[in-house]
User: What shape does this take?
Amino acid sequence: MTNTNSYSAQNITVLKGLEAVRKRPGMYIGTTGIDGLHHLVFEVVDNSVDEAMQGFCDDILVVLEGNDVVRVEDNGRGIPVDIHPTERVSALELVMTRLHAGGKFDKKAYKVSGGLHGVGVSVVNALSEWCEAFIHVNGTIHTQRYKTGIPEGPASETAAANLPYGDFPGRRGTVVRWKADASIFETITYNFDALSNRLRELAFLNKGLKITIRDERLSIPKVHEFKFDGGVKSFVEYLNENKTVLNKEPVFVEGVRDDGAGGSIEVECAIQYNDGFNEIMFSFVNDINTREGGTHLVGFKSALTRTLNDFLKKSKISKKLDESLSGDDVREGLTAVLSIKVPNPQFEGQTKGKLGNSEVKGIVESLVSEQLERYFDLHPDVIANILEKSVLAARARIAARQARDATRRKNAMDSAGLPGKLADCSEKDPALCELFIVEGDSAGGSAKGGRDRRYQAILSLWGKMLNVEKQRIEKVITNDKLQPVIASIGAGCGNDFDVSKIRYHKIIIMADADVDGSHIRTLLLTFFYRYMTALIERGHVYIAMPPLYRISYEKKSFYAYDDAEKDRILAESGKDPEKVAVQRYKGLGEMNPDQLCDTTMNPAQRSMIQVHLDDTVEAERIFTTLMGEVVAPRREFIEENALLVSNLDV
Assistant: This one.
């Protein structure tokens, strides 16, 4: 009889070569969804950008070909093609087929780089149905083709006339072309706009580098070309494009400091204030977006806070404030981009979301402090405007603190501490609970009647909601329309928000399918984005999709979510139109509770949109455009997108 509980050497599996990548792709690219698919493109592009950072490349081309094929070209030095002295195969084959094989470990070849682990292009190769590389070096073209990461033959030379693509500007460089493996990825169809946004970001961070993306899947190819001679200054101006700025020219800081280990750290930073109330801060290390910050960002924030407090002490404006400026005060209305180059960055994990080098904090802090002080001494009008805004922010912070304290005292007197408009659920585990935010008592009544009381809560809103884009925090937390939302979610607001304390893991905006409903959704999304950002980042926010039509005949009912679906149902019915009843729902309040349950609330049958924050730069721009003070960009946006709503029945 076999012992099924035995555990011995024969149970140990050894994955060779790139097998580990194909077996556990999430370990290398995070996800096999669309983000992971795009990660393949960025891994290859990052290698080209690393060449640019060394001064060997100034032109990168990304092409989305038909049949879900991607091609990346550059005019860098080209992957080495000579035979490796110990591995006895070409360096090209090593780079393409071996994990942790690359030039990033040798600081003679790359002083700084984004790809540090040597897994980038080999992972792309491993997760592709097929991949091919062409290297133009020393007047010849070398090529090698792979299938699921395995070479189909050794690298060989080919005539330039036989190359179907790639003109190799300067007669040098690398072309990598591949088709992602559909058996691994959920989709292999690339999003042009998502790729464009990241490539634009890379062009901002590498002054003078031209990056082009071309979509050849269209009958008329779509092309975006990015090149910014102003670097991070241009980046800040782009972010503030639709805002009213306090200092016309961004303050620019740059310098190089010894890292104490034989290398040097390069620092670039641009800051510009606007008359808004939100902080826009992006930080990068070797062109990698450090979304979780790190020591470089801590150093920058410390320098800014200390410098502004030093100038405040010498200013007459100090009489308007009884305490020092906090970090939040000096960053209200700030748009800043911090980019540093570090020879040996220490990131937290493969995602590289946070920098850990302890020496970086002091270097960034001292360099930024010195240059800001010098700049503000020469531009007293700029520092005066910034201090005036920061003092107003401090006074608003104090008022907001008092408002929070008053709200907490009020809630303490109320045993439940929850708004009267909330019909809560009985389940106490937040992971199982859903909160539907519904506009109006009529729709709220239908939602309460159609919900599952065990895990679905209903919060009815009323009246015109506040546009938080135009308000400071103290106005937000004291607003009678937003207080019920803040109290129901139960995790605070703004800097006090703690996503671990939310009472529901699904927060669902359920609004009418008309212009007013779209406005309510946009106002709520603006509030969540500005004051509960982690809700969106963690995937807790959803948009309900109620039907537009109910179609009835022969005692049967069908629901259509758009005009095309309505027409299809009518055509398939084969009935005389006079015998078919078509009801157009003007609002959720017109739906019976059972209808709302069956179509919009029942998890087994409903459709919902999960709100993601894929691109913070573009999200920032769109919220500013739609909800900000400047009218002209909003009008232009509406005119450009009018066709998308031309068929809306209102």
Summary: Residues 19-226 form a domain with the Heat Shock Protein 90 fold (CATH 3.30.565.10). Residues 380-413 form the longest helix (34 residues). Residues 29 and 456 are 35 Å apart (CA to CA). The chain has three domains: 19-226, 232-400, 418-546+610-645.
